[in-house]
Amino acid sequence: MYTIGEISKKFNLNISTIRYYDKEGLFPNIKRKNGIRKFDNSDVESILVIECLKKTGMKLKEIKKFLDWCTQGDSTLNNRLKMFIEQKNKTLSQIDELKKALNLINYKCWYYEEAVKRGSDKDLKNIDINNMPNEIKSFYINWQKNK
Amino acid sequence: MYTIGEISKKFNLNISTIRYYDKEGLFPNIKRKNGIRKFDNSDVESILVIECLKKTGMKLKEIKKFLDWCTQGDSTLNNRLKMFIEQKNKTLSQIDELKKALNLINYKCWYYEEAVKRGSDKDLKNIDINNMPNEIKSFYINWQKNK
DNA sequence: ATAAAACCTAAACCTAAGTTTAGGTCAAGT
DNA sequence: ACTTGACCTAAACTTAGGTTTAGGTTTTAT
Q: Are residues A84 and B32 in contact, defined by beta-carbon separation less than 8 angstroms?
């Protein structure tokens, strides 16, 4: 059993954030002693799940829905499975989007490294694509199509 | 030269969002004719960059800083390079975090598929880890360490 | 027994990134 | 010339996810 201060340190979360999560219903079965919260293993498990799902862009309301389903027993197993399959797909496409964004960023890194070397990017704007490294070149050709 | 309505369709952005970006200074050199915005190729380029960097979690203020540097000429080349190198690292760690989150999600998918098959997750809570698929098993062992 | 540290609530406040509303102006087709 | 659709601004409103503040308990250490 942990106090809110211990949890705060353990997971490096602001105390007010933990209280806010509680207010939003993210610890459906948390215990109290004289009004003071006592976090047990299942509450710690909730925090780990919250932290993880938040990273994938899941809203606190959705996460609460899952945690509530967990306390409601076997009748909600299908809902829970469906939720995780959806979140898996969302996360896969996020990774994909980030990789695409990374291509632009890598291009810009190459561009500004060259520009800094030359002291200017004037000549770089009309550079022959055959003077670009291969990955940069193929990104550049694709990028031009958006316009 | 495009109107705001054309840009809105082309990039599937709400018109108010584009006006908001303009208000925030994200089209530093946009032209107007009788008060009406005319988007040229460089404004289109800005939109592509904005969309891309936003996905990596960059704030509009940071993006504006970059766009402003672009209009200020060669003296800001170093700043721009530094910004993209930082953003590259941030994006790489975001991808990493998402992959970690995906491990939990894959575990949960496995867990609830099993549970749905069995009609209950009671027995699953004490399952022998040797009955888990290998990837699931290695995630599970690691996950237990957080507690 | 008492002071300090850690806990509590309710409510106000904050920020980013928009969206909505109200009241107007401009441009294109008939 | 006139109507309609597309454009304009300023300002209020919205949402999520907190953070801060003010005023009050509880626990812990001396």
A: no
